[in-house]
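Fig. S4 source data, part A: sequence.
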Amino acid sequence: MRVYGITGWKNTGKTTLTERLVAHFTAQGLRVSTVKHAHHDTEIDHPGRDSFRHRQAGAGQVIVASPARWAVMTELRGAAEPPLADLLAHLAPCDLVLVEGYKRAPHPKIEAHRAATGRALLAPENPTIRAVASDSAPQIALPLFDLDDIPAIAAFIRSEVNL
């Protein structure tokens, strides 16, 4: 499985970059999946829904299925968050998995950076970051891309994962 990450500080454009890369790669005929990490208690279900009620009653896993999509929700119930590798094992086969977040995981990544955040680059302290996509020109000894140059970023990722 080819895995490549998009990382960076909050409000640097990670989600927009991921979204645009997914659209670019799928337009080229690739099958792309994504994994999004959240640091907060993410709720994808809503109170009052049948699936929410199943989870509240104690179900460890709930599958919601419709003619358009299906999803599995797993309640950790105090257990540790699973490592990224365990989550990747649940994905169907695809050409590329784009992982948003997971700054410290060992897969290769590109860092999204916006000067307006005032945050320093993660790249100098993180050897898994192979390039930076920015709206400015930070001094970095890695490949540097304009945050909006999706074709160049996508070509870099493709070369990185031999795709």
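Fig. S4 source data, part B ends here. Strands lie at 3-7, 32-36, 61-65, 70-74, 96-100, 109-113, 129-134, 144-146.
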